[in-house]
TrEMBL record:
Residues 15-27 have a biased composition (Basic and acidic residues). One of its GO terms (molecular function) is alpha-amylase activity. This is Alpha-amylase. The keyword Repeat does not apply. Keywords: Glycoprotein. It comes from Haloechinothrix aidingensis. It holds the Pfam family Alpha-amylase.
């Protein structure tokens, strides 16, 4: 799909009125800090360890706030730090209103929020409404109660199918592979064991959002953290939660698709989910200036835009850009569709190229020197786009995926999907300083995941001193974005560009050019504000991007 106007002749890049893409509306223009924020995603376990156990923690984050201020981000998103058996890195929550001792306690959390605010940064925390841990007291009670007990109604229990109920209730598969149902032994004599639904690991039973206690408890959790001063929430699996009453079989092909709208997939994106988002929003509306961003895996523009209705989420992740290969057509299409999807709701997008669930961009774009160059180029593309940008810790250092030995993997996906290398490869701790692992991440000899021996030139300390480092590029881009772009103007105009390139113009006269063509291209006239690779004689090398004015 090609929507931008472009000429195939190399040379001049010109803005064209016809290709102007407007995502800005009255809703967006109303001051809202999140709409063009740069948010830094802290994978707490891997960011900084303050107590020498090899695992990152809240005090570790606190000790590095100066770095984040230097980087120039507006807010942090902290991945889950609640009490958890850590079957899925803390996304299996046993107590959503308490801090797991491995990360600190409530006092540490309060101090972190206070200090982040003092450094001028807001704090977003991760909430997990779709499921709990199997160690959550509700699930323990549900298993202990008989099949008819009201305790079971907080989760999704069903009788099995087939002779004697020995088969799962339907054909749903877990996002981590294997059946989405597990059988419990309820011990009650004569009663057939029931099955419970888990769209993720068996240690993450899905909640029943038709149960009023589930709704009330989630509101209580939100207020608990809002009263402690958090500025927003990242809503985990925000297209989950609602399940159809009939629990119809899914199209098995949906199991392999990142886009839940590609095949019939009743596990996700049911219409009933919007009522849940209105419930969440009603709580937030009692706290002006606070927000929620949802993790929404649907690439259908209309279905996506429904999550951004005025009484639902303020922002939602649309992962199209993170799924695009390093190809100018694919990237342009992803940008166009993302702007369109958010624009249908009168909002601006939240962009992201990376997360704790995805392969890191350096590796995704080909690895090695080419991967490094392309990831730098894409940093300039994403930071020039209208809307908010969510950076995943380590991307500002150009970290690649790490090939980890099987024995150290903690991701539950690697237990159920033997074909999957899992997500730990993008969760290796941050190298801060020094020449050997664990690079001041921790005082322990070993971090919770082994760190590569060749990261000494990717540490924060090494890169802070190097004006050509990835970190210096991110710092300059974040600063320029703030000074050059007009945050109230969400328009983007596509420009003509040579084949294999893309170009767009933003407010403040900023033109971003990406060269993915495999050969150098001449840049349009103008001052080069920033480039991901050296520009000589007005020529942009391949695998590079530049900001021109
Ligand atoms: C989200 C999280 C992921 C987690 C899953 C289940 O996709 O980002 O890390 O495993 O939800 O909670």
């Amino acid at each position: 799909m090609r929507r931008g106007v472009r000429s195939d002749s190399p040379g001049v890049v010109e803005a064209t009125r016809e290709s102007r893409q407007e995502a800005s509306t009255e809703t967006d223009r109303q001051a809202a800090w999140w709409q063009d924020a740069v948010v830094y995603v802290v994978y707490v376990r891997s960011f900084a360890d303050s107590d020498g156990d090899g695992i990152g923690d809240l005090d570790g984050v606190r000790s590095r706030l100066g770095y984040l201020e230097l980087l120039g981000v507006d807010a942090l998103w902290l991945t889950p730090f609640y009490v958890s058996p850590m079957a899925d890195g803390g996304y299996d929550v046993a107590d959503p209103r308490a801090v797991d001792p491995v990360f600190g306690d409530l006092d540490t959390f309060d101090a972190l929020v206070r200090d982040a605010h003092a450094h001028g940064m807001r704090v977003i925390i991760d909430l997990v409404p779709n499921h709990t841990s199997d160690q959550h007291e509700w699930f323990v009670q549900a298993c202990a109660a008989g099949a008819a007990g009201p305790e079971r109604d907080r989760y999704i229990f069903r009788s099995g199918s087939g002779p004697d109920g020995q088969q799962p209730p339907n054909n749903w598969v877990s996002a981590f592979g294997g059946p989405a149902w597990s059988k419990i032994s309820d011990g009650s004599a004569g009663e057939a064991s029931q099955w419970y639904l888990h769209l993720f690991s068996p240690e993450q039973p899905d909640l029943n959002w038709n149960n009023s206690e589930v709704r009330e408890d989630f509101a209580r959790t939100m207020r608990f953290w809002l009263d402690r001063g958090v500025d927003g929430f990242r809503i985990d699996v925000a297209h989950g939660m609602a399940k159809p009453a009939a629990l119809e079989n899914m199209d098995p092909r949906a199991a392999e698709s990142a886009d839940t709208s590609a095949y019939f997939d009743p596990r996700f994106d049911n219409d009933g989910v919007h009522d849940i988002h209105r419930h969440i929003r009603a709580v937030l509306d009692d706290y002006p200036g606070r927000m929620a961003i949802g993790e929404v895996w649907t690439f259908d523009e209309d279905r996506f835009s429904r999550y951004l209705a005025p009484d639902e989420l303020q922002q939602a992740f649309n992962f199209l850009l993170s799924q695009a290969p390093f190809d100018s057509d694919a990237i342009q299409e992803a940008i166009y569709r993302t702007l369109d999807a958010a624009g249908r709701a009168g909002r601006l997008p939240a962009w992201t190229l990376a997360s704790h669930d995805l392969s890191r961009q350096v590796t995704r774009y080909g690895g090695g020197a080419a991967g490094d160059r392309r990831a730098r180029a894409m940093a300039l593309v994403q930071l020039a786009l209208p809307g908010a940008v969510y950076l995943y810790n380590g991307e500002e250092l150009g970290l690649p995926d790490v090939d980890l030995p099987p024995g150290v993997l903690a991701d539950p996906m690697t237990r159920t999907r033997t074909d999957a290398r899992g997500r730990d490869r993008a969760r290796v701790p941050i190298p801060w300083e020094g020449t050997e692992p664990p690079y001041e991440f921790s005082a322990a000899e070993q971090a919770w995941l082994p760190m590569p021996a060749d990261w000494s030139d990717r540490t924060v300390a090494a890169q802070l001193e190097d004006p050509d480092s990835v970190l210096s590029l991110y710092r300059s881009a974040i600063e320029l974005r703030r000074t050059v772009l007009d945050s109230t103007d969400g328009t983007l105009e596509w420009s003509t560009a040579p084949a294999g390139c893309l170009a767009f113009r933003r407010s403040g006269g900023l033109v971003c050019v990406l060269n993915a063509s495999g050969a150098p291209v001449p840049l349009p006239e103008g001052e080069v504000l920033l480039a991901s690779a050296a520009v000589t004689d007005g020529t942009l090398p391949t695998d590079a991007a530049a900001w021109i004015r």
